[in-house]
Design a protein that fits this description.
The chain is of the alpha+beta class and 100 residues long. It is built from four helices and five strands, in the order αβααβαβββ.
Amino acid sequence: MSEIINIEKIIEMKLTEHFEKRIKERTPYSDCESFLYDLKLHKGDMIHLTKDSNQLNRFPNLRNKFRKYPWSALLVLESLNIAMVTDGINLITVYNLINY
């Protein structure tokens, strides 16, 4: 079951250096500020997934990401074609849904 995520909590999370690099590599954004701005605009579209979420069936290519990050959660924004990995404190990495 998906859980509603407070967008302010996400924006306050620490952006790891790895996450910032992946934003530039895997998304059309050149900086994190514009990325976070678009997150605010699309906050109603966000899906929070854990490894036990039923909605993970909609994203079978993301299921194996829990092998690499077993205690994490995925925050999926279909409207932006991205999935973010978080441990609840940090935004760890981002995936482009088109490539996965």
